[in-house]
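Our preliminary data section would be incomplete without showing what the modeling component actually yields. Below, a chain of 169 amino acids is followed by its predicted structure, encoded as C-alpha cells that our downstream tools consume directly.
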Amino acid sequence: MPRKSPVSSKQKGADRVGDMLVPLYRLPEESFVSSEITIRRALAPEKTIVLNWVKSHFSQGWADECDVAFSRAPVSCYLAVSGEELLGFACYDATLKNFFGPTGVKEDARGQGIGKALLLRSFHAMRESGYGYGIIGSAGPVDFYEKALGAIAIPNSKPGIYKGMLRQN
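Predicted structure:
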C-alpha cells in the first residue's frame, strides 16, 4: 500500500519517484540515544497490540503489512517504546522481501529522531540478514530518505509493485 508520509508529500518530493534503492554496505551508524525511548524488535505476544495501534494511527493496509512482519523469524518489525507507550514502528520484508516499510511515528512524538532511529535499525537488520541493498517501496518523504540513507530513486519504478492493487473505496 502506498506509504503515508508524516510530512506533506509535496514538501518532501514524493511525487518525484516511486521506489528508492539503499546500498546497505555504506549505512550511517546508528546514533539514537534516549534514556526514555527504546528502539527494539517487536515480540510475538505484542502482535495484536501493535496491529491495532498501527490501524488506529495509520491504516488497515499498513496493519496488514505489519502482520506479515510478525510472521517472520525473527519478527521483522521494530518498535519505539517509552515505558509501556508505543511511539512508532518500522517493518521490513513485509510486502516483499528486501522492501522497507511500512513505518510511522505517532503524531505527537515526531521531531525527536524516532523515525530516523527506526529507519536505521531496520536497514541495519536487513544488512545483518545478508542483503546488499534495500528498497523503499513507494517512498514517501524522499528528501528524508536521501539525507538519512543516501537512498536514490529507482528509474521507472512508479507505480511499482502496487500497480493494480485492490483498494477499499
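The beta strands are 20-23, 38-41, 77-82, 85-92, 99-105, 133-136, 152-153. The helical segments are 9-12, 47-57, 60-70, 114-128, 142-149. Preliminary results of this kind motivate Aim 1 of the renewal.
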